[in-house]
User: Fold these one by one.
Assistant:
Number 1:
Amino acid sequence: MASERIVRPGLEGVAAAETRLSSVDGRAGELVIAGFPLEELAGRATFEETVYLLWRDALPDARELEAFRRELAERRAPAPAVLEVLQAAARQKLPVMDALRMAAGLLSLGAGGAAPDDADAVLRLVAAFPTIVAAYARLLDGRAPIAPRPDLPHAANYLYMLFGAPPLPERVRALETYLNTVVDHGFNASTFAARVIMSTQSDLISAIVGAVGALKGPLHGGAPGPALDTVFEIGSAERAEAVLRGKLARGERLMGFGHRVYRVRDPRADVLAEAAERLYRAAADTKLYELAGRVERTALALLEEHKPGRNLKTNVEFYTALLLHGLDLPTGLFAPTFAVSRVAGWIAHCFEQQGQNRLIRPDAEYVGVKNRRWLPLEQRG
Ligand code: ACO
């Protein structure tokens, strides 16, 4: 008899847990982070404030914030073995996400000799991700890594380790807005991966390594690089339609558009578009920003023609690309910089999973044959 179970490929529309961390309303185009509408929080909070808020469900007061900032800042330098692995990875020119995945696993090694306990590990993960990414980016370019500066805030220190000079305030603000915007987003694939691992009562570092692996895929965190490549390939606004039509005709997806949950414009796209505009204006060069706007408008019109009624709209990745490019980050650093933020969200979800744990173990509907009979090797073929 056929099973009555409903199979939902991709688990679309299935709520697998309750969360207080973020609310994603795909129809209204609203994102709430720990109670704050994204637009209220992203452009105001420091990244440390956002992490504190997610983990403790309240904004810190000045004393709490200073203590939290210090706890993170003193854990930025990972164990020396991390640098050795990054050097080996750089010799093989591995992508940054692969290097980050390998190095994240090594954070089980405490920097000071003793293995970190859970409380130490969560801080160490958030603190060390920027150090790993920045060190590896420099190694890939044949340059020496720059040691973290504990006196700088988290976002400013990341830019300092990448470029070697304390960054301008508007660049720090742009990066913090980005980090706050992407810190958490419901049960996306990498967060779910982390929670599945955590639900087995495995350890936190394993959960984060799994999440990095999930984020690496182009359908999740790997889209902003290709989204920007498309803008560059187009080069000037009058070529937008021909280039984008060509891609759609070849069956390619337009990167930076479409979303599993949003059926309207991703609210993160607006926040990041505004932050990007401010950044490009501060640098007195808005050419690329304006071209991206033209490309976006053309893409939206063509996607409506291509999939009428499917509402394929701009997603977070399109303006992520523009913003991070404006901060002089190469495209290879876009997904890793996403991870620099999202690691805090993954950890918050790991806490939640621990607090309400039930092993995540869905079913699969078997559609293969049954009742096969074993044939000895000499009788096969
Ligand atoms: N360009 C062209 N066609 C598209 C696009 C796109 N960007 N997105 C969806 N479609 C088409 C699909 O080909 C599909 O057509 P079909 O029914 O003929 O097969 C139809 O629209 C429905 O798409 P789905 O694949 O069902 O949508 P899904 O919810 O699985 O996909 C996804 C969401 C993966 C993000 C998709 O829109 C996509 O591939 N976008 C481009 C990649 C991208 O920007 N990824 C970043 C997402 S944001 C994030 O994860 C942080």
Number 2:
Amino acid sequence: MIRAVLLALLAAAVAVPVGHFVAHWAGWSTFCLGLALQMIFHFRNFARLDRWSRQPLVDASLEGEGEWDNIFGRLYRHEKDLRDQIARRDQEIAMLIAAGQALTDGVVLLDTQNHIMFCNTTAETQLGLKVATDRGQSIVNLVRQPEFVAYLEAGDFSRPLTLRPERYKDRVYAIHVIPYAGNRRLMQIKDVTQADRLDQTRRDFVANVSHELRTPLTVLAGFLETMQEIDLDDDERRRYLGMMADQSRRMQSIVQDLLTLSSIESAPPPDNDVVDMASLIDKLRRDAEALSGGRHNIVVESDGRGDLRGSEPELISALANLVTNAVRYTPAGGKITLHWQTSPQGAEFAVQDTGPGIDPKHIPRLTERFYRVDRGRSRDSGGTGLGLAIVKHSLNRHQAQLDIKSELGVGSRFAARFPASRVANG
Ligand code: ADP
């Protein structure tokens, strides 16, 4: 500014002597020429500023002349600071979005009208949304399940909504809506399928246990009532007491198996004791013969090598269950073979029988608690429906697999396969 005034004064200082010594018009012309030069100088810088402001680039250095260079410098720094700030904000927003995307829960941000502002990929999959096309759309137009729409419209978010989505029938979601920033809503979608299944399993289990115990209890109560009300002769009395003893033994077996199952479930990892397989198989054979009472041909086929590492009581319980089942389900005259074989891959203990066999459709469910192919036959042979569940648990704890092969009318083969890490002296 001062520079502009000084230049005007300089023009005047040159113009005055010219006007005095040459001619008036020459003085004025000199003065006007000075001012015009200054104006040209300023217009050039104005034009430069005009061009730059239309497309302010911070990488091309903006240079002006004279005082203009300072103004351009300040503008340039201001623009650069602004851009740095925006870049930092963009980076922070990108980090927040990345964090939202990384969440294993679905997240949807809604505005006050339930329009989608953001949703992460988990929510896209869960609700069948596409953020690229659905942003700005009302979520109730896209997720039309009546219970979801009613929940959002009721506006009471004190409890989450449990939703079984129409697109994934086997999934269960817990949807929490958290109001934020006034009337905006953050929707968090948790996949609770696993917890729901566990809950269902627990409910089924309690129902099954009650049912299993109720039957013998009802029978027992009925006999007691009869004995209280009717005078029975000695024979009848003995017969009734015998049947009552059967029912209480049945309840005892169920409770015993339940206790075994729960102790296996809550026990720490099994020991690493070396279990002598030759004597274990010998014991299993003797127990099987005792249970069979000579009705079956019981054979051992063993390569005689290798022992197992693990908890002896658990391994005995698992393998004895397989042998006991073979004896209980194989009709008299049948053959039961106990196999033991080791290889570099591990070891296998298998029980093969010539019993009734099992329809393939039942095989995947045999290790479920209380699952029986033929309830009556299982009960008559003293089964609780928990044997194979105990086997599966004990084997899992020893990293072993239960493999079941069976053919109706031919027989069954139940094999416990142990990894090499569980084999000792192999
Ligand atoms: P249970 O106490 O009823 O025997 P398990 O869990 O031991 O219960 O076995 C589940 C079901 O598997 C049995 O009810 C039976 O139907 C079937 N099963 C098990 N072992 C055999 C076998 N060796 N031959 C035929 N069916 C078997």
Number 3:
Amino acid sequence: MENIIEIKGLNKSFITEKKQEINALKNIDIAIKDQEFICILGPSGSGKSTLLRLMEGLINPTTGSINVMGKLLTNPIPESGFVFQEYSLMPWRNIIDNVSFGLELRKYTKKQRYKIAEDILSKFGLKEFIKSFPYELSGGMKQRAAIARAMATSPKILYMDEPFGALDAYTRFQMQKELIEFWLKEKRTIVFVTHSVEEAIFLGTRVIIMSPRPGEIVADYNIDLSYPRNRWNEEFGSYFENIMNLMNEISEVQVPRRCEVI
Ligand code: ADP
Ligand code: MG
């Protein structure tokens, strides 16, 4: 299968207000196939969000290139959808108007957008909450609505930046399971950023590991475990141990083994 995303020789630096240059990403090469579930894992500041924003077309590389579906990326394209940790929903709009926002931009009629939004919200178990406002929903429900919103325009690629980072552990586990069920059914390409080793192994067909700044790819693991995954089994444990060891080696601050906060 051909690559849906191809990143070649990418470097990204920022110039701060004090005219200092910050090298955020260095020598990034990634090829992603259609329908892969890619987890990008790295310590805080390793350039994960920057890499995602580049793939979304929100910012441009300093050098190097990103091709999405065979075309050079220069701006955001309609084939991609985004989910962030917070601020994904507009607090002044109710859930159905949040979910249908992208369709509104694409000039669908109100009837058309509500039909699509209602269908997708029922898939995500939120049918009864279409008229609710974001503040009336729990954290898990808000993120479900944010994923529904990203999916309303049927993007081929879904970019997710630590989307479950603010959820309690139980809700987070539930959401991870739901996301896998959704991905197995809908067969999209997902690029998911996380700093949790455990989350990355639970979700990804591949886990790409970034070093501390400047972010470079230090490893690219195929996670050869069938879905749904069991985080308590031995094979899962050995992936966890290998990746934790690597993370310990590359990070400046040593983190205690087997004490990961998720
Ligand atoms: P991560 O998501 O892995 O925590 P980020 O991609 O947010 O990392 O940031 C990587 C590095 O780039 C950090 O050192 C951050 O301060 C810097 N950075 C990100 N965006 C900007 C910007 N717009 N201007 C200057 N520096 C930035
Ligand atoms: Mg980030």
Number 4:
Amino acid sequence: MTNWCMFAFTPNVDILHMSYMRILSGIQPSGVLHIGNYFGMMRPAIALQAEGEAFYFIADYHALTSVRDPTMLRENSRRVALDFLACGLDPERAALFQQSDVPQVTELAWILSAVAPMGLLERSHSYKDKLARGLAATVGLFNYPVLMAADILIYDSDVVPVGKDQKQHIEITRDLAVKMNETFGSEPDGWIFKLPEPRIQAATEVVPGIDGQKMSKSYGNNIDIFGDEKETRKRVMSIVTDSAPVEAPKDPSGSTIFQLYSLVASKDEVAEVREQFQKGGTGYGEFKKQLFEKLWEHFAPMRKRREEMLADRSYIDNVLARGAERANEVADQVMKRVRSAVGLR
Ligand code: TYM
């Protein structure tokens, strides 16, 4: 029996008092997944799937704000599903689906946008960052956090595992939930939406890229989870360092190499490399080689699983179809509540 059966949805407001936790997160299919996605969101999300009822989705509606090639959007969406499953998402525990298979979420986004203060969205860092990077100032880009709030609220989510860059989006979600509850919540319950909590891992809240800035597909500083060996080695070997000579002691705390190494090595290995940094006598090139070996080894079982899954195309289709079915069940229940609360039929 899957968790879905155990947690069959009760269409009654008492879900607030049920003891299980709803976990939700999303990832955009706007490119190839990198190790910042993995350590910042996928690994924590996979760990959480054992602790409650999880909903993880491929945010293809969101990706439309930046991807203009339909073939690429479709291919990337499939690849995100494949990569997430290969990394350990268990479809018996977590519903994996495409955002656009639950189109009710766009209806909720519209309803939320009717109460969303302009000023709240104008303060969005990610909107400003995207404009600064040259993306066109579309209504979709501006409204991005409202759709994200709808994603979260439509599943009555309790916990949202994300990297630090998504924190403000979850704060906006909470603000919109409060606004809806205040505006439309009626006695005796006085609520429509739960207030979700972000779950951000301190050690991996911002995984650095090869230039030391936050790793991001759009900065071109990414190391991909399933990049080929030659390319991955090349990316690791081009991590930017200071110019300390081989013999000089080096500061591990400010080093991207050390930070990435800490994510994949054991405690003892990390302690040993820290000592080598501080002692001097080892060059950055040598540390980079050690990092590459560890990274390659870390993702080896996942690469193997991915190869196996590639052989069976229908597997991913089935997983996504089952995930969408479960997601729709919950979204329909919540939308019934929302439509009734705001006065729609
Ligand atoms: P996206 O696709 O940019 O990234 C997916 C997840 O990966 C995390 N992440 C990182 N974490 C640490 N260090 C990094 N360098 C790094 N790069 C990426 C992100 O924080 C994110 O958790 N808006 C979301 C997608 C989304 C969503 C949602 C998430 C749509 N609706 C609802 C949660 C809930 C996004 O663009 O993520």
